[in-house]
Design brief:
The complex is a heterodimer. Chain A starts with a strand and ends with a strand. Chain A is globular. By secondary structure, chain A is an alpha/beta fold. In chain A, helix 3 runs parallel beside helix 6. Chain A folds into 2 domains: about 240 residues, Thiolase/Chalcone synthase (Peroxisomal Thiolase, Chain A, domain 1), CATH 3.40.47; about 140 residues, Peroxisomal Thiolase, Chain A, domain 1 (3-Layer(aba) Sandwich). In chain B, helix 2 runs antiparallel to helix 3. Chain B has 5 helices and no strands. Chain B is mostly helical. Classes of the chains: A alpha/beta, B mainly alpha. Chains A and B meet through helix 2 of A and helix 3 of B.
Chain lengths: ~425, ~100
């Protein structure tokens, strides 16, 4: 099978609207959480989120185009453009029949759904649905728009597996390239659920932190007093290419995808398996696919959402899979800084994992105040400050409601 | 507002404020929804051939006219509204 490398990156995150700003935020240990500005949250249990800031779609596309896109699609277009240009593809003639787009979004156009329904219920019952309602709402449309924008005629669709969605997108793109179906993909994911139904919905599940008096420290994975995740939003994009394709055009190579893993908890719709069964399986699958042994992984970017149960089961899984090596590698949850980007989390954390390899620097798990005895202190959770180390390979986990588990192994590129 | 030739002609033809209001509102809806320059919004301009509208844009325009002028445009009549001038003529005749 063919080797697959990453040659372009893009990011719009609560820490900044470019890869450089995102990475700077990660290694500075900044929090992207703050009081909600997108709507009046004064009656909501949780009144803060990790919002994308200073994003104006009209800086990137004309108003007519922007108006027809839900924010999740706007994030997709802009982050994909950054990755496309970063890979130097704007100066290269791509064979469109060998190029595809696989995008991830857990929810799709929630903003659009909410506002269209709202105007219907405020009316007299006469349906006045906008003709763009359906194409704005559907969660596959970002992939469609990207294919139109770049003239990519290869495989094109969106993966939906809740918070694992964009890891599934990366996995599928990786597979199609290594199987020879296509040479190049724009992949990644985007999500824009910091709105009334997004916040209230996760609040109703008691999934969100309610630390309204201190939003910046609310996302505190592995801390004793963690009380739920912080809702984030944004998008991230990766350009994947077959190694041959990248070499032939002289592309700069960030890293290589070593292998991927998939599994299901088969346990509960939202609660993780208490012993981390699905998480154990998925990391084993990824290592096997990559042909690596546990001692070859130096960094795990965990799902680590800062929920009481999820963090515990994931660490159990790491101990199951890595044994003594669990004490040698670095573990961190970048969600402590970005909040939880839901369907875009896998892509954003892929960027963090790849740059950890490139820069030899592991971004921290910030907001650690009090140890939780549930976690073996020998595990290096990279609390509060980044750590420098050679990262030969990094494993990035994302898990989604429904019990979907995904892992992707990135490794340093060696000719 | 830029005083285009189109606007001058309209102003001279239309004696009642009510009617010029309609033309001006139609123009601003078209500029907003289709993202075109107001100079392009001439009476003979076709939504699809000249102003870059696709079939969904056209449906949205008709809906916006209905909302703005508080009327319902039957489908068989909407099909005949394909230019700026046709929209203005229809709305001037039917708007309350």
């Amino acid at each position: 099978m063919r080797r697959v490398v990453i040659t372009g990156l893009g990011a719009i995150t609560p820490l900044g609207n470019s890869v450089q700003d995102y990475w700077n935020g990660l290694v500075q240990g900044r929090s992207g959480a703050a009081p909600i500005t997108h709507f009046d949250a004064s009656k909501f249990r949780t009144q803060f989120a990790a919002e994308v800031k200073g994003f104006d779609p009209e800086n990137h596309m004309d108003r007519k185009e922007a108006r027809k896109m839900d924010p999740y699609t706007q994030y997709a277009m802009v982050t994909a453009e950054e990755a496309f240009n970063d890979a130097g593809l704007h100066q290269f003639k791509i064979d469109g029949e060998r190029a595809g787009v696989i995008w991830g979004s857990g929810i799709g156009g929630l903003y659009t759904v909410f506002h269209e329904f709202k105007s219907y219920f405020e009316g007299d019952g006469t349906p006045k649905f906008n003709p763009f309602f359906v194409p704005k709402m559907i969660s596959d449309i970002a992939a469609g728009y990207l294919s139109i924008r770049y003239g990519f005629h290869g495989p094109n669709y969106t993966t939906v597996s809740a918070c694992a969605s964009s890891n599934n997108a990366i996995i599928d793109a990786f597979n199609y390239i290594r199987w020879g179906v296509a040479d190049l993909f724009i992949t990644g994911g985007s999500e824009a659920a910091v709105n009334e139904p997004g916040v209230a919905g996760f609040n109703a599940m008691k999934a969100l932190s309610e630390r309204n008096d201190d939003p910046a420290t609310a996302s505190r994975p592995f801390d004793l007093n963690r009380d739920g995740f912080v809702l984030g939003e944004g998008g991230a994009a990766l350009i994947l290419e077959s190694l041959d394709h990248a070499l032939a055009r002289g592309a700069r190579i960030y890293a290589e995808i070593g292998g991927v893993g998939l599994s299901a908890d088969a346990h509960h719709i939202t609660a993780p398996h208490p012993e981390g069964l699905g998480a154990t399986l998925v990391m084993r699958n990824a290592l096997r696919d990559a042909g690596l042994v546990p001692s070859e992984i130096d960094y795990i970017n965990v799902h680590g959402t800062s929920t009481p149960l999820g963090d515990v089961s994931e660490i159990k899984a790491i101990q199951n899979v890595f044994g003594e090596d669990a004490y040698r590698l670095n573990v961190s949850s970048t969600k402590s800084m970005t909040g939880h980007l839901l369907g875009a989390a896998g892509a954003a954390e892929a960027v963090a994992s790849i740059l950890a390899i490139v820069h030899g620097r592991v971004p921290p798990t910030i907001n650690h105040f009090t140890d939780d005895p549930a976690f073996d202190p020998r595990i290096n959770l990279t609390f509060n400050a980044p750590q420098s180390r050679t990262v030969r390979a990094a494993l990035s986990n994302t898990f989604g409601f429904g019990g979907h588990n995904t892992s992707v192994v990135f490794k340093a590129y060696q000719a | 507002m830029k005083f285009t030739e189109f606007h001058v002609i309209l102003q001279s033809k239309l004696t009642q404020n009510h009617m010029s209001d309609i033309a001006s509102k139609v123009r601003s809806i078209i500029v907003d929804k289709l993202g075109v320059d107001e100079n392009e919004v001439t009476p003979e301009a076709s939504f699809t051939n000249d102003l870059g509208a696709d079939s969904l844009d056209t449906v949205e325009l008709i809906m916006e006219f209905e909302k703005e002028f508080n009327l319902s445009i039957p489908d068989d009549q909407a099909e005949n509204i394909q230019t700026v001038g046709q929209a203005i003529t229809y709305l001037e005749a039917n708007a309350k």
